[in-house]
Write a structure and sequence with these properties.
The chain contains 10 helices and 17 strands. It is an alpha/beta fold. It folds into 2 domains: about 160 residues, 3-Layer(aba) Sandwich (Rossmann fold), CATH 3.40.50.2020; about 170 residues, Rossmann fold, CATH 3.40.50. The strands form 5 sheets. It has a 6-stranded mixed β-sheet with strand order 1-10-9-8-4-5, sandwiched between helices. Strand 9, helix 5 and strand 10 form a beta-alpha-beta unit. Helix 2 crosses helix 3, helix 2 crosses helix 8 and helix 7 crosses helix 8. The longest helix has 21 residues. It starts with 7 loop residues before the first helix and ends in a 7-residue tail after the last strand.
Length: about 425
C-alpha cells in the first residue's frame, strides 16, 4: 500500500472519519472515494475484493477463506446454504462456501430468460437496487439449513434485513448468519438488527474481518456534489494500440461459470478444473510481466480461479492481478491518497433488463507515471459477448488503448431448463 492512506484525499475534503474497533485498522481494508450517487456521497473501496482495485488473486481468495473459517465457528457444524450478494460479493461468497464445503447461490441483477425469480429484494442505497434469486433447485432452501448471507460490507445492515424479510415469507427458517469483510454499522444499526431478529423470532449473527464506524458531517452530500462539480472533465480514452485476440474457449459447456443458479460440490470441482485449463492456454500466449485478469460484473469467481493458476505458475518477476468491471459509478481522481485513480467508461454490452447504461473498469488504465499492464485478459460470459462489446467506444476498444496485448475468453453461461 501507498504510505498515504487512499482515503485521505476525500477525508480531508469532506470531513469524513473512519474509526476502528477491536484493534483492526479499517484503513488497511478500504479507501474512500466519491460516489456519483445522490443517495450516498462516499464509497468504501476494498483493497482485497479484486473489484475496483486490482489485487493479488491469492490474497483475495485467501482472505475470503479466512472469513469462511470465522463463519464456521458460528455455525457449529450446522448445515448451511451460502448466498452472496451481487455484484461485489459473488466471489467472496464462493470462497466462503468453498471453506465451509456447502452449497452456494448468489443474487443477480440479470433477468434470466423466461424464468420466474424465486425471490427478490431491494438495496435502497445502491445505484442498481434489485436483487433476484434464480436457484435451479429450490431444495437448496431446505428449512433445516442455516442461511449464510455474504456481503463485502455492512454499512447499516438494511440490505441483509430486506433479504431476510423476503426469504422468511417464502422459505422461513430459524438461523441466519451475515458474513462480511467490513462491518461499519453503528450502535443504532446494530440495535435495529437485534430488534428485527426478535420481531421475526430468528437467530441472527454477524461475522466480520474488521469493524468500525463512519462519521459523516451533516452537509456531506452537498459538499460531495460541489467537489464532483469542481473536478475537470476526464481525459479522452487512449487510442487502441493492442490487437484483440479471441482465445478459443477452454471452459466446457455445461460447467457452471458461477452460482447464479446454484453451485454444489461437483460444480466447484469442475469449475476448478476448467479454470486451470483456461489458465494453461493463456500461459502459452501471455508475453509480458504485468498481467491483469479482468472479470465482468457478477462474473468474478471464475476469473479469480484463472488468475490464481496464472500467478502460481508465473516466473519470478511477473505479477498477476485480478479485478472486475462494475455498474458502480465512482469519480476517478488521479491524486495520491485516493483509491480510484483512473476509469474506463463504456456502454453496457449484455442487453441488461434495466436498459442501456454506462459501465466502468477502475484502475485498469495506468495512473500518471505508472507502468501499464502488458497483457490484459478479459473473461466474460456469452451473454455479454455482443456487438456492443466490439463497437467503437466499447470495452474492448478502451482496453486495447491501455495495454500491449488483449486477450478475450468467452465462457459459456450456464442456463437452467425452465
Amino acid at each position: 500500500m501507498s504510505p498515504v492512506w487512499d482515503g485521505q484525499w476525500l477525508a480531508d475534503r469532506l470531513g469524513i472519519r473512519l474509526d476502528s474497533i477491536e484493534g483492526v485498522d479499517v484503513t488497511e481494508w478500504v479507501g474512500l472515494a466519491l460516489r456519483r450517487n445522490p443517495k450516498r456521497a462516499h464509497l468504501l473501496v476494498s483493497h482485497f475484493l479484486g473489484k475496483h482495485i486490482p489485487a493479488d488473486p491469492r490474497t483475495v481468495y485467501g482472505l475470503s477463506l479466512k472469513l469462511g473459517t470465522s463463519v464456521r465457528a458460528v455455525l457449529r457444524d450446522e448445515a448451511a446454504l451460502v448466498i452472496g450478494f451481487a455484484e461485489t460479493a459473488t466471489a467472496l461468497g464462493a470462497a466462503v462456501s468453498d471453506e465451509l464445503d456447502v452449497d452456494y447461490l448468489h443474487t443477480t441483477r440479470r433477468h434470466v430468460g423466461e424464468l420466474t425469480p424465486f425471490g427478490n429484494f431491494l438495496e435502497e442505497h445502491s445505484h442498481a437496487t434489485s436483487h433476484l434469486l434464480y436457484p435451479d433447485d429450490r431444495r437448496l432452501f431446505d428449512p433445516d439449513r442455516a442461511l449464510v448471507l455474504i456481503d463485502d460490507e455492512l454499512s447499516t445492515g438494511q440490505t441483509a434485513m430486506n433479504m431476510i424479510h423476503a426469504l422468511q415469507r417464502i422459505a422461513p427458517r430459524r438461523h441466519y448468519v451475515i458474513g462480511c469483510f467490513l462491518d461499519m454499522r453503528g450502535f443504532v444499526n446494530i440495535a435495529t438488527m437485534h430488534a428485527f431478529a426478535d420481531t421475526l423470532g430468528i437467530e441472527l449473527q454477524a461475522v466480520r474481518m474488521a469493524g468500525g464506524t463512519v462519521h459523516l458531517p451533516p452537509d456531506v452530500v452537498a459538499r460531495a456534489d460541489a467537489l464532483i462539480a469542481a473536478q475537470p472533465d476526464p481525459a479522452p480514452p487512449a487510442p487502441p494500440r493492442a490487437k484483440v485476440r479471441l482465445v478459443e474457449s477452454m471452459w466446457p459447456a455445461g460447467v457452471r461459470d458461477g452460482a447464479r443458479h446454484g453451485f454444489r460440490y461437483e460444480d466447484r470441482r469442475q469449475a476448478s478444473i476448467a479454470a486451470r485449463a483456461v489458465a494453461a492456454r493463456l500461459a502459452e500466449l501471455i508475453e509480458g510481466d504485468r498481467v491483469l485478469v479482468l472479470g465482468y460484473e457478477e462474473l468474478m469467481h471464475a476469473p479469480i480461479l484463472v488468475a490464481i493458476s496464472l500467478a502460481d505458475w508465473a516466473d519470478e518477476g511477473r505479477i498477476v492481478r485480478v479485478s472486475s468491471t462494475t455498474r458502480s459509478p465512482v469519480l476517478a481522481i488521479d491524486e495520491p491518497g485516493y483509491p480510484i485513480r483512473t476509469a474506463l467508461t463504456f456502454p453496457a454490452h449484455d442487453d441488461p433488463a434495466d436498459g442501456p447504461g454506462l459501465r466502468y473498469a477502475y484502475n485498469v488504465a495506468p495512473e500518471a507515471g505508472a507502468e501499464p499492464y502488458s497483457d490484459i485478459v478479459l473473461l466474460l460470459d456469452d451473454v455479454a459477448d455482443t456487438p456492443a462489446l466490439y463497437a467503437p467506444g466499447g470495452l474492448l476498444e478502451q482496453l486495447a488503448g491501455v495495454c500491449e496485448r488483449l486477450f478475450v475468453q468467452v465462457l459459456p453461461s450456464f442456463r437452467p431448463t425452465a
